[in-house]
Amino acid sequence: MLAAAQAAGVRRYLRQSIAFWAIPGAGLADEETPLAFDASPAVAADAHIVTEIERHLLGNANLEGIALRYGFLYGPGTWFAPDGDVAQQVRQQQFPIVGNGEGVWSWIHIEDAAIATVAAERGNPGIYLITDDRPLAVRQWLSAYAQWLNAPPPPQVSVEDALRISGADAVYYGTKMRGASNAKAKRELNFQPRPLEWIVDTAVAHAS
Hints:
Layout: H1 2-7, E1 12-18, H2 41-58, E2 64-70, E3 72-74, H3 85-91, E4 97-98, E5 104-105, E6 107-109, H4 110-120, E7 126-130, E8 136-137, H5 138-148, E9 156-157, H6 159-165, H7 168-175, H8 183-189, H9 197-207
Parallel strand pairs: 1-2, 2-7, 3-6, 4-9
Antiparallel strand pairs: 5-8
């Protein structure tokens, strides 16, 4: 794709990437945080792939490369839409909280992802984390999500049981995931993402 872009005389190349594979640690990851090469098998493999793709793009002297690392996409047509695959899993209690549910997920509405992509066409080359303002631990977002769907509360399983039933990647997503900071995108792209809709809606429901 890069070779074809260059042959066509393309000056700027935007690439979709991933915001939630930074190395585990305290606080929010930023664009300089290394990816998790020592994570669970699938996460580590994908982190290597993403890094290589970004390296080829950003190291190309003939193109202005921009890597947009999106958070978990939600909204119409996504897995997290009310008619999406994850919603069905939650309704059927097949999406548990693993351990203490301390893995932190970063989110982005699909329409905000599109807005950020358009803005990036005029931004400086480099990496941008495209996420909303409030990364949340699994125990927080998943419980609120189930309530928003009028589904039963999610079950909770031990790390040992999750390893046995679902594997190391499920444990990583549930307990090790690190949230991402959108400060650079807000500063350089004037990015103003909306809050996660089921957190807002459940908060309103509690208040009324």
